[in-house]
Design goal:
The relative contact order is 0.09. The strands form two sheets. The protein has a three-stranded antiparallel β-sheet. The chain has helices at residues 3-14, 18-37, 84-91, 95-98, 105-108, and strands at residues 42-44, 48-55, 58-62, 65-72, 75-82. Mean pLDDT is 86; it is low at 103-111. The protein contains five helices and five strands.
Length: 116
């Protein structure tokens, strides 16, 4: 699902216009980015927590020249830790709905002849 599809679904469920929904989503993004830049966390209870993590500078290998070592600078990266309600909701997903293209053993097996 992309941003336009998300906006459409939220607008339909919440009874808002697409413009109102787009404004709310853009405001959420801006506030979240601003908070992460300040080193704060944004927690949506049950859904998850957005945070900023500092990744230290390190040495790496140039993929085009494996014998050459390169310096990878320190950087701040976004991190998302899922909440309990989100994890529990995904655990409830039936495995067959995820892999619906795979046939179950019953579908692959031939019927066994019965002795009459």
């Amino acid at each position: 699902m992309n941003k336009a599809e998300l906006i459409e679904k939220i607008a339909t469920k919440a009874g808002l216009t697409k413009k109102q929904t787009e404004d709310a989503l853009e405001t959420f993004e801006a506030i979240t980015i601003e908070a992460l830049k300040k080193g704060e966390e944004v927690t949506l209870t049950g859904f998850g927590t957005f945070s900023a993590k500092h990744r230290h500078a390190r040495m790496g290998v140039n993929p085009q020249k494996p014998t050459e070592r390169i310096h990878i600078p320190a950087v701040i990266i976004p991190k998302f830790k899922s909440g309990k309600a989100l994890k529990d909701a995904l655990k409830e997903v039936d495995a067959s709905s995820v892999n619906s293209t795979e046939a179950t053993p019953e579908e692959n097996s031939e019927p066994t002849p019965t002795a009459e």
